[in-house]
Amino acid sequence: GSQFAFVAVIAAGGAPMAGAVSGLLLNLRFVPFGVALAAQLPSASLRRRLLDSYLLVDESVALALAVQ
């Protein structure tokens, strides 16, 4: 999603920095996802948690929270 936001801002004549900020703001939605899922995930190594966070997408969050 952030890539599309960046390209849309650039295509509309916006500055690259504005495109980058729009992408960062769009990705802020993952912060509440992480907080909501933290209690559901077992404690693991930093390496495992980084991998899990990389694989985190909207659909997997919705599924995990629906199964509770």
Structure, explained:
By secondary structure, the protein is mostly helical. It has five helices and no strands. It has helices at residues 2-11, 16-27, 30-38, 46-54, 58-67. Helix 1 runs antiparallel to helix 2 and helix 3 runs parallel beside helix 5. The longest helix has 12 residues, at 16-27. The two termini are 27 Å apart.
Brief description of this entry?
This protein has 68 residues and is an all-alpha fold. It has helices at 2-11, 16-27, 30-38, 46-54, 58-67.
Write the layout of secondary structure elements.
Elements: H1 2-11, H2 16-27, H3 30-38, H4 46-54, H5 58-67
Helix pairs in contact: 1-2, 3-5
The total beta strand count reads 0
Helix share, percent: over 70%
Distance between the termini: 27 Å
Oligomeric state, counting identical vs distinct chains:
single chain
Largest sheet: none
Q: How much of the polypeptide forms β-strand, as a percent range?
A: under 5%
> Overall mean pLDDT score?
80
Number of helices: 5
Helices and strands, in N-to-C order?
HHHHH
What class do helices, strands and sheet pairing give? mainly alpha
- Rough shape? elongated
Low-pLDDT parts are none
Q: Over all CA atoms, what is the radius of gyration?
A: 15 Å
List keywords for this structure.
about 70 residues; about 0% strand; 5 helices; elongated
